[in-house]
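Moderator note: this is an archived Q&A kept for reference. The question asked for a predicted structure of one protein chain; the sequence and the answer are reproduced below.
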Amino acid sequence: MKTLLAILFIAACAGTTGASAQNHLNTSAPASCPLTAELSPLHLYGLWRAEFEGGPQGATLLFEKHPELAGSVSGAVNRDGVKAQLAGDVDGGEFTLEESLDGQRISATWLGMVVENSCGKEIRGIWNNTLDNPASSAASYPFILRKLPGWQ
């Protein structure tokens, strides 16, 4: 009889604990999805793919911690082998990026907004050619940046 009561007690405790934990998990908000206004340069780190509306090709961008400016990112863009340096930031959902082909002069700018409810993984805006940039003959293109899987 004592064994039966012990088994019933253990089963009752286990059942209650599991249900409680399950309910707690269902009501929690995902921790990995920041609000757009809360995004920082840390959320930009990683590999991104750019598509340009009306453009002949896309580009791959890599954002890393800026070695000198704590609130910024640095990195590179690659368009079919044409590489350029990048530096920029995100503030309140506003995305600003400067591109340089020679490391001295700004050859293009990227101005955009992080897409609401994208968890900081999609940015839309306008890419503007500021020099005679061989990557494009047009003065500007709308762009969509999407963070590639595998980067959190």
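Archived answer notes: The domain at 36-147 is CATH 2.40.128 (Lipocalin).
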